[in-house]
Design the sequence.
């Protein structure tokens, strides 16, 4: 009697499907690789930036010790002849040094503008060093310095906040005790903005709660408009307003009338 054949083992068919764990594993590996690469790149870039900042601050400290410490003190803590610079910010240094007002040539009612003593890179180093001493106004972003804001709004803001010292046309004017508000004609947009946030000399500080950055940009736009569009009325007498115009009328116009009258009377006699 024949022995029945044993059944052949079943062949397992390949379905072509991956295990769900494989997809999850690949996703995790991809995320870890991407995150690791990003972290390494960011850490490298941050370290490089910190190194550059540290180097800039060190250069600024050397420049400060050689050119500023005699008045402001070795640690910028101030002295009997100059104020402390702790907390004035980079904007104050960039304005004062970038316009030549500092280092001061001599003590007086106020520091006068003169030729700049340092290069742009040296000014940046000095500003970085002083900024490292304490928080203060930073150098403004270029977005607010383009001069493409609302000129009409800027003119109104300037008349309300600035014209009583600088004149409505930014021509400047005299103050008390030998001090003065300088002309704003030809002043760079960056230095105008920095003056508003730092309040140099007798100027008040206009922080972002007083005048927003956008409104500061509008004021700059108005002043740049004046630079590009001089007075269309001919002789502007320095844009000094009704006082100079009145003096001109009294001295020259009425003086001419009086002189002609005297001459005609003398001739008739």
Sequence:
């Amino acid at each position: 009697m024949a022995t029945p054949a044993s059944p052949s083992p079943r062949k397992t068919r390949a379905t072509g499907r991956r295990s769900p764990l494989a997809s999850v594993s690949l996703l995790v590996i991809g995320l870890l690789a991407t995150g690791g690469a990003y972290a390494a790149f960011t850490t490298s870039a941050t370290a490089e930036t910190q190194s550059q900042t540290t180097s800039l601050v060190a250069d600024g400290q050397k420049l400060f010790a050689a050119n500023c410490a005699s008045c402001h003190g070795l640690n910028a803590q101030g002295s009997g002849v100059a104020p402390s610079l702790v907390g004035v910010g980079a904007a104050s240094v960039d304005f004062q040094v970038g316009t030549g007002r500092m280092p001061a040539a001599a003590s007086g009612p106020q520091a006068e503008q003169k030729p700049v003593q340092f290069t742009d890179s040296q000014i940046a180093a000095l500003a970085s060093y002083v900024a490292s001493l304490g928080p203060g106004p930073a150098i403004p972003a270029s977005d607010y310095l383009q001069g493409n804001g609302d000129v009409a709004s800027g003119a109104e803001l300037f008349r309300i906040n600035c014209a009583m010292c600088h004149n409505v046309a930014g021509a400047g004017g005299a103050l008390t005790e030998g001090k003065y508000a300088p002309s704003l004609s030809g002043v760079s947009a960056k230095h105008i903005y920095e003056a508003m946030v730092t309040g140099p000399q007798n100027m008040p500080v206009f922080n972002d709660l007083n005048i927003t950055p956008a409104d500061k940009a509008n004021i700059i736009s108005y002043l740049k408009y004046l630079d590009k569009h001089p007075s269309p009325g001919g002789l502007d007498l320095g844009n000094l307003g009704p006082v100079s115009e009145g003096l001109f009328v009294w001295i020259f116009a009425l003086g001419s009338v009086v002189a002609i009258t005297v001459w005609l009377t003398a001739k008739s006699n």
